[in-house]
Amino acid sequence: IGDCAHQNQQEKTFIDLIITKQIDGMLLLGSRLPFDASIEEQRNLPPMVMANEFAPELKLPTVHIDNLTAAFNAVNYLQELGHKRIGCIAGPEEMPLCHYRLQGYVQALRRTGVTVDPHYIARGDFTFEAGGLALEKLLALPEPPTAVFCHSDVMALGALSFAKRRGLRVPKDLSIIGFDNISLSEFCDPP
After folding, report:
1. What's the helix, strand, coil split of the chain in %, to 5?
2. Would the N or C end of the chain have less CB density within 10 A of its end CB?
């Protein structure tokens, strides 16, 4: 078990274990390999399964959630509550899961004939602070959203905190929905 944490020395340690065949298999919890491996080179590597993330270009067996459908369902829920102007606090563009969550947001809007306004999409880095900053940007729009779909619960908590500091009542003035169902989310107000 090891966490590369995107540090070259840690990655080199794992590569050495692979080369010396001290690993029988690998469970990858990130969206990138700690080494370059073309499809041809993957034949010489131990069996690998990707979990949590989905990187189709690696062509590896994968166990993950359906980010697109889950995001679609979250936005659809907000639409069923009557919201027409729904913002999105998206995660980093380079992360595959964010791409799928954004696609779910877009598809839910399009399904009901709502035009996707790029101004209603703000990016964050999955931190509490990013959620607050992104909501600040969205609320500054001439017609701010009445609901916000966040790519993570942590950013949703940041957005909720910012909304409360602005005197907004959630969900009466603004609906906020997160993603991940982290345990902390049940302890916030509203949960």
Report:
1. 45, 15, 45
2. N
Report whether 175 contacts 78 (CB < 8 A).
yes
Superfamily classification of domain 67-187: Response regulator (3.40.50.2300)
From CA 144, how far away is CA 166, in angstroms rounded? 14
Structure tokens at 72: 């679609």
- pLDDT value, residue 145: 98
Residue range(s) of every CATH 3.40.50.2300 domain in the chain: 67-187
The amino acid present at 50, given as its one-letter code, is M
Average pLDDT over residues 93-104: 92
Average pLDDT over residues 153-182: 96
The answer for residues whose C-beta is within 8 angstroms of residue 14's C-beta and 6 or more apart is 2, 4, 23, 34, 35
Token code pair at residue 93: 């563009």
Place of tokens 């990013």: 130
For the chain, give the mean pLDDT. 87
Query: How many helices and strands (H and E) does the chain possess?
Result: 6, 7
User: Phi-psi category of 150—alpha, beta or left, where left has phi over 0 and alpha has psi -120 to 50?
Assistant: beta
